[in-house]
Amino acid sequence: MNIVDLIDAEHSTVGGKAAPLAELARAGFDVPSGFVVPATTYQAAATALGLTELSNDHADEARSRILSSRLPDGVTDDVSRALKRITEGASTDYVAVRSSSIAEDSDDASAAGQHDSVLALRGTEQVCQAILTCWASLWTERAVAYQARQASQAALGMAVIVQRFVDANVSGVMFTGATTAIEATWGIGERLVSGHITPDSWRITDSGIVERRRGSKTERTDRRDGQLVTRHTASTEQEELCLTDRDVLRLRALGEEVSSTLGGPRDIEWAIGDDTIWVLQARPITALVPDSPAPALASTADGCITTTGKPASPGIATGPVRLVRGPADFPKVKRGDVLVCQHTDPAWTPLFTIASAVVTETGGVLSHAAIVAREVGIPAVLAIPRATELLTPSSTVTVNGNTGHIVVEQ
Question: Which residue range or ranges hold the Pyruvate phosphate dikinase AMP/ATP-binding domain (predicted)?
Fold first, then answer.
């Protein structure tokens, strides 16, 4: 079977991202309608291309083979028919195409940000190429390294989910539990989950909203026809919280219902469009978020500079600062270094098995990099303005991922 309607999808063939969405759709939640190209279709194509063992030794060649191939005619025809079905009656015919590995979104391995998604597409040709892109992302350095750490070959099963695209006014991530944590930003949420912006955040308990924190939200991304356009936000957008208290409480109630339906606390990606909260992903929480701390820049009694950001992954580590501005700096990273950067990217996660800690200028504690840092077990402190200036390569720092404090050793 080349195509499975999302509402009929089962985990064994459609992967960790699609299966919970299918369960939620069957239960009546607002999940964008869609279909899945099951893992069996990928496996047949990979076998035909001679790709069987997941390894970095021939990852570049594997990606090249996949991206230069074409979907079988039968699959293309089925995709075309399914696209017409899910977009019929919709306000637009744009869709999102997302990877759904058999091994991702499990109880102990999220694979957060490790595989590709392609957004705001229309038409059979674009969607079929995006399916190949998702397949090829199984063979990126970051995905292979992550899977090697999990000591499993299960990720050789790669399904792809295609859904109606949500033109969101606000998007975000929510971790449910005794305390619900929410992070949100204007527009489409890709730059939030990738750690490129510092979002607004809330914490909610049975007593109500117990914490509100305004992020910088310096950018927002929206669809303009077939392009995702990122622009700088106006000062009014930066100063205004992007969710009302009513929205926050609606989200918490939704999170509790999703958790109850799926059987435990969940990491939920969501988007609000036309006053509807759409559930885009609902995976198990693999590691808890540290509690929020307080203040900013200070000096200790012995003259050591201390700065504070968001504690994103618990633990304490000391090491030399290594400024990383992009992939060109990756070879410079040595075991035990403290990564200090403007923001991280999913492609950077192989460095997390080498570094002793991570410090960034932007980002939220529910971002992909923060999730992976918690899974790997290294401290992470995010959203420290000018961190790349304050923490110089000649210095040694202690990173406290429990409190968010950074101490520069003298």
Answer: 12-288
